[in-house]
Design goal:
It is a single chain. By secondary structure, this protein is mainly β. Helix content is 13%, strand content 48%. The protein has two helices and eight strands, in the order ββββαβαβββ. The strands form two sheets. Strands 4-3-2-1-5 form a five-stranded antiparallel sheet. The protein has a three-stranded antiparallel sheet with strand order 6-7-8, with no helix packed on it. The longest helix has 9 residues, at 59-67. The mean pLDDT is 88.
Length: 126
């Protein structure tokens, strides 16, 4: 995306096809220099096969984005959130962490950890 400088969109919405347009994609971002909201809509005309782009900046961008919420099928951020797994999966290994109470007694917490950095508490041993 481009406004005062070149920057990447922080979210991409994939929109439903309408009567005249198909392959509709909305790029949403914020200019790092002037901090204005920027929206860029790409859509392909069904009749003429011409790709049309509409760019909105500032308050117009915010209202334009709000109007297109009802046409959104999914977004890049929602897909990225679905790929996150909070619990370990695949190859797992055990990690034992020794902890101490205030009076100096020790106990061990056992965790299951995978190679992606996800961990899960298993049990406390005395």
């Amino acid at each position: 995306m481009r406004h005062c400088c070149e920057f990447d969109a922080f979210d991409i919405w994939y929109l439903k096809d309408c009567d005249d347009f198909t392959n509709r994609t909305l790029f949403i971002g914020e200019c790092p220099i002037c901090h204005k909201h920027v929206s860029l809509l790409y859509q392909k005309n069904i009749n003429t096969n011409v790709i049309l782009s509409i760019k909105k900046v500032g308050e117009a961008s915010i209202t334009f984005t709000k109007e297109l919420i009802k046409h959104r099928l999914y977004s890049r951020n929602s897909i990225n959130k679905m790929n996150l797994k909070p619990k370990p999966y695949g190859w797992r290994f055990g990690v034992n962490k020794e902890k101490f109470t205030k009076n100096g007694q020790s106990y061990v917490h056992q965790y299951a950890v995978d190679f992606y950095g996800n961990s899960e508490f298993i049990k406390k041993c005395n």
